[in-house]
Structure formats: structure tokens, C-alpha cells
Design goal:
seven-stranded parallel beta sheet, alpha/beta, three-stranded antiparallel beta sheet
Length: about 250
């Protein structure tokens, strides 16, 4: 297959899935992972995508205002956020990971909620700063600029000292066999610490991320208490997750 043909296929998959994975592309296009990395590097230099470790994402124009962040699949994420509202209550200690699904959720949280919320996501912290009755703690650390979240041992150390009632975790990929997986190693470590600090773990997953995988494991499916998707819980796509014993909303 010619390089130009590969590039066209990669860009089409990026438009369709809003991300591409190096390993999956290598298998689907029957070439080496090194070839795919060179393709992604070339497309990145041309400004056609944003290469990250293990794959690539579409180029997103950076907003002039932190509150104007574009949320892809906003309708799906609003459905998830509305379902998640049923799990929050006054007096809770909550941890929220980064990601636009949790950002959409944060925008739906009632202004009169009285809770303590920890987050290492700058956009979510900025959003929650508008809630007068929320005691907001932003967890500082090394900033991952593309996602605007903090990562590293500083974040892990803070999380290790917390005891939260519930955590809402945005997810890059999930499947029944491998559980939750992430694109980046450091993010996977932070999410493991987030889970260990919480009595209840809620995974926020848009339907296109179901039955996919990324390079770094976060946890097995059995370690989740609840999965919230934009689908009807009775959807056939979710049958295996229900059989695995996880609550599906």
C-alpha cells in the first residue's frame, strides 16, 4: 500500500473515531508499528493531527476562553452527565478525573450542591469554581498541556491521602476482557490512585469507547462499581458488561 493511501485511511479513521491507535492501525493496514509512527509524525508536522504516545487525536483549536472548550459528542456526554447526577448528594467527598465527559457532567451539577470535590483537571476546576457551595480542591502537579490535567507523583501522593465517597472517572477505552486502559502511562497511574482513594468507582464512557483498548491498563472490570454510558442499559452492546457484574446506567 502506498504511503498516500495509508495517510488517507488514517485521516478517515481519525474523523470517524476521533482518535487512532498505533497498534490497531499497524494490524489493520498490515504494516509495522514503526511505519505507522512515521506516518503519524509526518501528518503531525503537516498540522493534520496531534500525535501522542500510542496514537493520535484530531487537531482542536484552543479556545480563547477556558469556558468555551469544544466538547465532541456533547449530546452523548450530556446524557451520561444527567445519569451521573443521580449518584451525587450533599456532604459527599468526590474525586473527578479530567476529560470532556466529566467537564460536561460538571456543567450539569446543581449550583446548590454542598460537597467537597477534588480534581486534577484545570477546566473542571474552573467550571466548578462557579459553584458557591462546593469546597473545591485542585490537585497540583506537572501539567499535561494537551489535556490540561496534572499528572505525576505529586498528584498520586495527594490522592493516596484521600478517602472519597465516590470518584467519576473519564475513560479512554474499556472492554470486558482487559477492563479500563489508557493511552498514557502517567495518566493510568493517576487513575489507579484515584480508584484506591474512593469507596465507589464510576466509569463515564461514551459508546464509541466500548470494546476498545489502549496500551496501559488501569483496572479490571470487576474493580468498577458502575459504568455510565449514553446507551440504554438494556442495549445488546452492554450485555457482557452486565453479565460481568458491574452496575450499568
Amino acid at each position: 500500500m502506498l504511503k498516500a493511501e495509508r495517510h488517507k485511511i488514517i485521516m478517515n479513521k481519525l474523523i470517524e473515531n476521533q482518535k487512532v491507535n498505533t497498534i490497531d492501525l499497524a494490524v489493520n493496514l498490515d504494516v509495522s508499528e514503526d511505519t505507522i509512527r512515521r506516518d503519524l509524525n509526518e501528518l503531525d508536522k503537516k498540522g493534520l493531527l496531534e500525535k501522542v504516545y500510542g496514537g493520535a487525536f484530531p487537531i482542536v483549536d484552543k479556545p480563547a476562553n477556558i469556558f468555551d472548550i469544544a466538547i465532541v459528542n456533547q449530546d452523548k456526554k450530556d446524557i451520561i452527565g444527567k445519569k451521573a447526577l443521580s449518584l451525587i448528594a450533599d456532604g459527599q467527598v468526590i474525586i473527578m478525573s479530567g476529560g470532556t465527559t466529566n467537564l460536561a457532567f460538571a456543567k450539569l451539577i446543581p449550583s446548590d450542591l454542598k460537597a467537597t470535590i477534588y480534581t486534577y483537571s484545570l477546566p473542571i476546576a474552573m467550571q466548578l469554581s462557579q459553584h458557591p457551595n462546593v469546597e473545591l480542591i485542585f490537585i497540583g502537579g506537572k501539567m499535561q498541556k494537551n489535556a490540561m490535567v496534572t499528572i505525576g507523583m505529586d498528584v498520586v501522593q495527594v490522592l493516596s491521602k484521600l478517602k472519597a465517597d465516590i470518584c467519576f472517572m473519564g475513560v479512554s477505552s474499556i472492554n470486558v476482557r482487559l477492563g479500563l486502559t489508557e493511552m498514557g502511562y502517567e495518566v493510568s497511574i493517576v487513575k489507579k490512585a484515584m480508584m484506591q482513594a474512593s469507596d465507589r468507582v464510576v466509569s463515564m464512557v461514551t459508546s464509541e469507547k466500548l470494546n476498545t483498548k489502549m496500551p496501559y491498563g488501569v483496572c479490571e472490570l470487576s474493580q468498577l462499581n458502575t459504568i455510565i454510558t449514553d446507551l440504554n442499559p438494556k442495549s445488546s452492546i452492554l450485555e457482557e458488561y452486565v453479565k460481568a457484574g458491574v452496575q450499568v446506567l
